[in-house]
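Q: Structure for this?
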Amino acid sequence: MVADDRHAKLPGIIVFILADIASFVLFFIVFMAERAKQLDVFVQSGQHVNVTLGLINTLILITSGCLVALAVPSARNGQIILARRFILGALAVGALFAVIKGVEYYQKIQAGLLVDTNLYFTFYYIFTGLHFVHYVVGMTLLTLVYFKIKHQSSGHFLWLHSGALYWHMVDLLWIFIFPLLYFQGAR
Amino acid sequence: MDRTGKSNPYRYVRFCAWGGPILLVALIFFWGILGHNIPPYSAAGNADEIATHFREHTSQARIGMIFTMAFGVFYVIWGLGISKVMEAIEQDNNVLSTLQLWGAGLTTIVIILPASFWLTAAFRPDELPPQTIQLLYDAGWIFFDCAFSLTMLQILAMGVCFLGDKRAQPIIPHWVSWYVIWVGCMLPLLGLISVFKDGPFSRSGLINYWIEFPIFFLFMLLSSIYVLRAIPKLENEHALAN
């Protein structure tokens, strides 16, 4: 690790991020191909998802992503306290995503809409479940970044840069998952 | 730097690292081609189709699976080679290299045990009802794919350790480590073959076969190449330290 990594080249995590995005793009293509085969099932099932909650979660992730984006230049300029506050804010806003996702899953399960209900709900649970795993990893990463910055650990800027890139990927994936799954019911 | 106290800590390590490519070639030929696993029979197909295959290609299936079982041991040999390189990176303790070796050792079982199910299906296929042959075939595939956590353990321990290399020029490039971690993160999707009989997440589907297997084989190939490249660098380090 270089002593001053503020000007280091792009973190290696970018390989993981690109590969991960590529796999999701593939999942989306598969989803669209399967949708074309069972259009009615997908359109009817899409009417059972809560667009409002999906939209709120989109706004939550975008807000959280903006806060992380603000933390990066703050840390680069040596404003460590401000950077920590932005990360803390991103974590606090980001935590709401899990609450809303939990409400959504609860509503689905109560309505008897489970992973084996039909192919649409299979995709719904797989996509949102995979995204949720990414989200949990991202929240953990941001928490680690917060403490790395707090203690000024070696390579803390690289951690912040990598964490921010990862968190933006979590945003980006959701921005595609949201219309793909939630607007199926719209005609 | 000689933290082992041994005069030549890298003796036999090249052979171990070659275990990966040797196994890869053997798997493609014996498991893939002779075992008729490129691609496997669909879980949505009927039992007669699988039974007919084992009855008409009994010798081919037997040879394929016996050699798959025989070559399977190369996975743990390969894992030991990787562990030796990891030990040269580890700073504080050998937890990650040990986890990697355990993961590789257990993955060896994931290669050998399903092959024994498929070999059993080829043992007396004319006397078994088609549903029994299908059961053995399914059981083999379910163990093969759904025991992903064992391989995931190996892969993630490996990727995390390589990323922790503090050298100015890491022994294993960080992009390789991130690829390795990504492959490890993709493996849990294999668990979905226990739910889907057709479609992209089934055992012969686009994602769980045509994507998962090539990325895993590429992981084996890339890791072997970079571990083999790492050995002379580590030998030089060892020579300079002594």
